[in-house]
Amino acid sequence: MTNHIPEYFETPLTLAVIRLFDRVLPLLEGKPSGAFKAYIFGGCALHMLTNARGSADVDAELEVAAGVNRTEIITLLDGEPEDYELDGRDMQVQYDTRFNTSLCPTHEDFNERAIPLSPGQEAARLQVFVAAPIDLIITKLGRFTDRDHEDIRTLIRTRDVNLKSLDMLARQAIDYCPCDKSTTLSYLRLVLDEFGYQP
Q1: Alpha-carbon distances of 178 from 60, 70, 112, rounded to whole Å
Q2: Closest alpha carbon to 131 in 65, 61, 70, 30
Q3: Which residues of the chain fall below pLDDT 50?
Q4: Pairing of the two strands 89-95 and 57-64
Q5: What is the b/e burial string over 20-55, where b = at least 16 CB atoms within 10 angstroms of the residue's CB?
Q6: Which residues pair with 62 in a beta bridge?
Q7: Residue 29 gets which letter from DSSP?
Q8: What stretches of 31-180 show up as alpha helix (H) in DSSP?
Q9: Full-model pTM
Q10: Quick one: pLDDT at residue 199?
Q11: What is the pLDDT of residues 138-174, one digit of tens each?
Q12: Which residue in 122, 118, 114, 116 sits closest to 32, CA to CA?
């Protein structure tokens, strides 16, 4: 699995997502390092990792330290959309309050593999990460629409995903996911077969 900093952290979409999360900084005054962490999934994560399609919705798992008001943070993020321009067109991104990693296969250690959007942010109160390619793939095994399937193919092709690790981590995630396990495992098997992996 490739875990270097991707090339797509300076695109208009990525910078708009960063500005969206910067809104919470006033609420973190006097708080310790890592008081608020956001882990980006979904179409925005796919864009950051591959420069493929983006999304108008920002899917993110939030971690909030004790003493930080989670409700106030979500209210700020759920305010006005963040504007940006792309090829002369006016675009927007909006935080999606409905996103929840408990509703799709998500490995419990995804945060350990997540990639920081700002290198050296360890001392910052606000820390924003993008899910590692392997963890983004695992979440997409849940719905497994045609678009999810193509996104998975794109991630495997462009990010040199280790298929043995994908098989192991996905099975672990599916094991404790409240989903139709046999169906989700069949999606995993389909993907691995497409790329010629045999355990």
Answers
A1: 19, 25, 22
A2: 61
A3: 1-3, 5
A4: parallel
A5: bbebbeebbeebeeebbbbbbbbbbbbbbbbbeebb
A6: 38
A7: T
A8: 42-50, 70-77, 110-113, 133-140, 146-159, 163-175
A9: 0.94
A10: 80
A11: 999 999 999 999 999 999 999 989 999 999 999 999 9
A12: 122
